[in-house]
Amino acid sequence: MILRLIRDTASPLSKGGGGGLGRGLVGRLFIDGTLFCTTLERRGVEILALWYTVSVTMSPRFKRLLPIVNSVPGRSGIRFHVGTQPKHSSGCILVPDRETETCLTQTLLQAQQHETIYLEIIDPKAPAPLYDSPCPAHERVQDPLRLPLQRGRVQSGEQDGDKRIA
Fold first, then answer.
1. β-strand 2-7 against 24-31: which pairing, if any?
2. What is the mean pLDDT, run by run of 10 residues, along the chain of 166 residues?
3. Separation of alpha carbons 128 and 56, rounded Å
């Protein structure tokens, strides 16, 4: 399963506006290419735009099963959980309500029983990653949103054998 979080740097909230919510970074979460929900992260403590794996485990803080982002460089305990303002997070990825959180958790819990769950975070304004780490599953995934490359981004209309660096 592929989760893709695309940060929206053009959002008024991402620019510091948004009716007092300030310093938030809005994103859109896709599951296997289908829009699932919007997300919110606290600017300045968001995780790097890289590939990660995700699993569902018991959260000691929230006392319930929640998705956790694994192997975040220099960080631990980065989870998806409900929150409506950036201050509700110290680095986690917030989803808009408890119903969405529960649905995401149940979807991922079922998926992790038979496949690895990958998360790609895309930040249009972020510099290129320090190291190149394409998704290990990209060979079997044909996603119209964006295919991982060695460097750069896929240009529209390209096929696997015709990848040009943007």
1. antiparallel
2. 90 52 84 96 92 96 96 94 92 96 96 96 71 51 44 40 40
3. 29
Provide the residue range defining the domain that includes 47. Answer: 2-122
Domain-embedded: residue 58: yes
* In a domain? residue 96: yes
The pTM is what?
0.73
- Give the 3-state secondary structure of residue 54: strand
Radius of gyration of the chain (CA): 16
Q: Residue 140: exposed, middle, or buried by beta-carbon count in 10 A (0-12, 13-18, 19+)? A: exposed
How far is it, in rounded angstroms, from Cα 139 to Cα 153? Answer: 16
Evaluate whether residue 128 is within a structural domain: no
Tokens of 139: 């060979």
Q: Report the distance separating Cα 112 and Cα 118, nearest Å.
A: 10
**DSSP code per residue over 132-163:** ----TTTTT---SS----SSS-PPTT--TT--
- 152-163 burial: b if 16+ Cβ within 10 Å, else e: eebeeeeeeeee
Q: 88 in a domain, yes or no?
A: yes
